[in-house]
Amino acid sequence: MSIGATLAAARRRAGMSVSDLSQSTRVREPIIRAVEHDDYAACGGDFYARGHIRAIARAVGEDPAPLIDEFDSTWRSTGRTVQLRPGVPVHVRYVLIWFTKLPPDNAGTYQASVYKITVEGRAR
User: Most buried residue, 61, 78, 80, 101, by CB count within 10 Å?
Assistant: First the structure.
């Protein structure tokens, strides 16, 4: 059973609605719903996702330690470099990038590195 499914089942066993859980943990309802569907993008990063999982688990009477271990082994950001190629689809959970104007190099390419993600493109 996934982290989200475990937390959703524990919430139902505890007789709590998403609204009750939100009031108890101060985690917003959309985030609770997302976590229960194993979507951690709304959490704002690994640090916050782990905190939300821990808070939700404690509130519904579930041990957070195995859930955090599963999150770390399955979902936690690895910091790996990904090579992007034109025409090749890349699936990501979320990417936060803001660009500044960078001058092209002599070959006419642009390059920007943000959060261990390197994005390259050709000048038009």
Answer: 61
Distance, CA of 30 to CA of 34 (rounded, Å): 6
Q: How far is the C-alpha of 116 from the C-alpha of 118, rounded, in Å?
A: 6
User: For residue 85, which amino acid is it?
Assistant: R
- Classify residue 10 by its DSSP letter: H
Q: What is the pTM of this model?
A: 0.63
* Same domain (yes/no): 70, 84: no
Tell me: do 43 and 95 sit in the same domain: no
Residue 78: predicted pLDDT: 56
pLDDT on residue 28: 94
Q: Which residues pair with 113 in a beta bridge?
A: 118
Q: At what angle do helices 3-13 and 29-36 cross, to 10 degrees?
A: 120
Domain count, the chain: 2
Domain region containing 12: 3-74
* 6-19 residue pLDDT tens: 999 999 999 999 99
**Residue 25 is part of a domain; what is its CATH number?**
1.10.260.40
CA–chain centroid gap for 53, Å, is 12
